[in-house]
């Protein structure tokens, strides 16, 4: 199996006991199922009234609705819940097989790493047997990750595609000196690969009828729209200044120019046809094949870095990332939850004004003072 990240998801995925295949039989005396959601316990919390364990999210949902203990019916004000760290270690450390074992996946490991391995609902992930949706938004095809690779490259009707005749697909522009050619550049004498107008490698090359030069189609169209004459020989008569696809140049630029990724100095090992470099880089987009391309954080933060480094930034460091309050479960931006929200959070633990050593949720201070032994009557 591949390497698994040590970091755990912020909202643990839930599994029922029937979904899981344990490497060894779980001892019957270990309580691993939540009595509320009936799934394997996530972040187990023990209640003080009867000693049963529940998922943290389940017991907090019960208490926030002023509900009594689901097991012994003690009123919500008469019991507390606290993290059962020992049980948490036991549950997280249960050895399980991948839920796709029957399809052929050979992964096995700690239960806490299974969600990361599966990465449910995401196109990318370690488990190649997990069923997910095609990466192209408008396509509804679903299949195992390993099968979707072929579908997306060859069969998907929504995949990016360029016309073999006019190369209409949008392509990033590159200067000759920006490119790292796999072999020494040898251009046939009759073929131009640089546009004399924009000075970039030709994209969608077209030859003009007046002087025979080859330019980017977009450069020709800009010239015609501005003053109507050829940018090279200044011919202005419409019947003499026409243009058509330069097929020899198009084929040479698209299929004969083998290049390395422009991020090769940073460590990227990709190489391929020049026509595929734009797709590999996906400049300006958060997602893309090249993990060494510098792009902007997916959230409203202005941080820019290599895609591979932004994964850690977005998960652990970005002030604009989604974040859940550990006290009341409100979800918002990290900078808000850890700042302004904590000043008003109703579940935030506060100290009694009488210094009675108890920590009381902010919303329960009034109730506590009616029972505090140090409160003056």
Automatic annotation (TrEMBL):
<protein>
    <recommendedName>
        <fullName>RING-type domain-containing protein</fullName>
    </recommendedName>
</protein>
<dbReference type="InterPro" id="IPR027370">
    <property type="entry name" value="Znf-RING_euk"/>
</dbReference>
<feature type="domain" description="TRAF-type">
    <location>
        <begin position="279"/>
        <end position="331"/>
    </location>
</feature>
<dbReference type="Pfam" id="PF13445">
    <property type="entry name" value="zf-RING_UBOX"/>
</dbReference>
<keyword id="KW-0862">Zinc</keyword>
<keyword id="KW-0479">Metal-binding</keyword>
<dbReference type="GO" id="GO:0008270">
    <property type="term" value="F:zinc ion binding"/>
</dbReference>
<feature type="zinc finger region" description="TRAF-type">
    <location>
        <begin position="279"/>
        <end position="331"/>
    </location>
</feature>
<dbReference type="InterPro" id="IPR001841">
    <property type="entry name" value="Znf_RING"/>
</dbReference>
<dbReference type="InterPro" id="IPR013083">
    <property type="entry name" value="Znf_RING/FYVE/PHD"/>
</dbReference>
<feature type="domain" description="TRAF-type">
    <location>
        <begin position="116"/>
        <end position="169"/>
    </location>
</feature>
<dbReference type="InterPro" id="IPR001293">
    <property type="entry name" value="Znf_TRAF"/>
</dbReference>
<feature type="domain" description="TRAF-type">
    <location>
        <begin position="341"/>
        <end position="373"/>
    </location>
</feature>
<dbReference type="InterPro" id="IPR017907">
    <property type="entry name" value="Znf_RING_CS"/>
</dbReference>
<feature type="zinc finger region" description="TRAF-type">
    <location>
        <begin position="341"/>
        <end position="373"/>
    </location>
</feature>
<dbReference type="Pfam" id="PF02176">
    <property type="entry name" value="zf-TRAF"/>
</dbReference>
<dbReference type="GO" id="GO:0043122">
    <property type="term" value="P:regulation of canonical NF-kappaB signal transduction"/>
</dbReference>
<feature type="domain" description="RING-type">
    <location>
        <begin position="195"/>
        <end position="234"/>
    </location>
</feature>
<feature type="domain" description="RING-type">
    <location>
        <begin position="34"/>
        <end position="73"/>
    </location>
</feature>
<feature type="zinc finger region" description="TRAF-type">
    <location>
        <begin position="116"/>
        <end position="169"/>
    </location>
</feature>
<dbReference type="Pfam" id="PF13923">
    <property type="entry name" value="zf-C3HC4_2"/>
</dbReference>
<keyword id="KW-0863">Zinc-finger</keyword>
């Amino acid at each position: 199996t591949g390497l698994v990240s040590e970091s755990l998801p912020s909202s643990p995925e839930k599994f029922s006991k029937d979904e899981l295949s344990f490497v060894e039989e779980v001892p019957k005396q270990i309580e691993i199922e939540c009595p509320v959601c009936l799934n394997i316990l996530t972040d187990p919390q023990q209640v003080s009234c009867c000693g049963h364990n529940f998922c943290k999210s389940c017991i907090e949902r019960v208490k926030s609705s002023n509900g009594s203990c689901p097991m012994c019916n003690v009123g919500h004000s008469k019991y507390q819940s606290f993290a059962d760290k020992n049980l948490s270690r036991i549950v997280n450390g249960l050895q399980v097989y991948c839920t796709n074992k029957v399809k052929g996946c050979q992964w096995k490991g700690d239960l806490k790493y299974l969600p990361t391995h599966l990465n449910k609902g995401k196109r990318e992930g370690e488990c190649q047997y997990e069923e997910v949706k095609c990466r192209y938004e408008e396509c509804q095809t679903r299949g195992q990750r390993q099968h979707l690779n072929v579908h997306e490259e060859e069969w998907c009707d929504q995949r990016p595609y360029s016309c073999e005749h006019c190369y209409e697909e949008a392509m990033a522009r590159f200067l000759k000196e920006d490119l790292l050619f796999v072999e020494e550049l040898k251009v046939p004498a009759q073929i131009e690969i640089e546009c004399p107008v924009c000075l970039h490698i030709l994209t969608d090359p077209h030859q003009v009828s007046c002087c025979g030069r080859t330019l980017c189609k977009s450069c020709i169209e800009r010239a015609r729209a501005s003053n109507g004459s050829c940018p090279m020989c200044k011919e202005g008569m419409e019947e003499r200044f026409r243009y058509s696809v330069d097929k020899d140049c198009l084929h040479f630029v698209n299929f004969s120019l083998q290049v390395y990724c422009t991020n090769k100095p940073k460590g990227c090992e990709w190489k391929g046809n020049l026509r595929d470099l734009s797709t590999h880089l996906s400049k300006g987009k958060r997602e893309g094949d090249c993990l060494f391309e510098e792009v902007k954080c997916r959230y409203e933060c202005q941080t820019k870095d290599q895609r591979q480094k932004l994964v850690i930034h977005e998960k652990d460091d970005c002030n604009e990332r989604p974040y859940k309050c550990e006290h009341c479960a409100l979800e918002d931006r990290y900078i808000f939850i850890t700042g302004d929200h904590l000043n008003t959070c109703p579940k935030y633990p506060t100290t009694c004004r009488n210094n009675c050593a108890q920590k009381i949720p902010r919303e329960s201070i009034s109730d506590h003072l009616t029972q505090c032994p140090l409160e003056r009557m």
